[in-house]
Amino acid sequence: MQVRVADDIRLKIETGTLGPSDQLPTLDELAADHLVSLAVARKAVDLLKQQGLVITIQGKGTFVRERPTARRHGIDRYAKSRWRSGQAILTAEAELQGHRAGQLIRELAETAAPAGVAERFKIPVGTPVWVRRRTTLVDDRPNQLADSYFELDVVNGTRIREDDTGPGGSYARLEESGFELDEITEEWSVRMPTGPESAALRLPAGTPVVDLFRTTFDTMGRPVEVMLAVIAGDMVQMSYRFKIPD
Fold it and tell me: What is the CATH T-level fold of the domain 72-239, as seen in this structure?
């Protein structure tokens, strides 16, 4: 029974009868409208929460979740013309879509390379590396926890070790140090968040996260940055356009 009620509400959301931020009827009203018990109505709303379609705000009611409008433009976002002209990648991408972007530094430190990072750098696990841990925000809401790792000889003496990396960000500083950037790999996977991740990203119940491993290589084939980002699943849309390989 709860599936039928949930399906009816989901259809209204998908067709626009219920739009983003619209409030759902109360549980009593849902039960009366669908000729079901209050318990069934509650289970239907819980099912919609699990599907990421609605959120409940204590003391106010249940509302249709707003959907993200900011896109992550896969290949184009790394255009050299952006960061060579002094723009930060995230800021430039957000501004093109009418959004505001920023970041908070969580940690700048020398740390032991975790397994995934060590594998991509091709160094032993535990080797000292430099990490920049940031929380990035779009329109004042956290959208990702981004941790960028660098081998120490790559960043020693650069502003990558400072809070403010300067115009163009880390990529511009790498090129100034003689590492001409040439290639990027991105590896994506989806999972449910941990409790601390849910809190840090302010995730509504039932929202997954996307794990992104990004490795940046120079023209000599050396990996010069490995970034692990945990991205709020309701704030990311991937958009790619590229030539089909022969």
Answer: Chorismate lyase (3.40.1410)
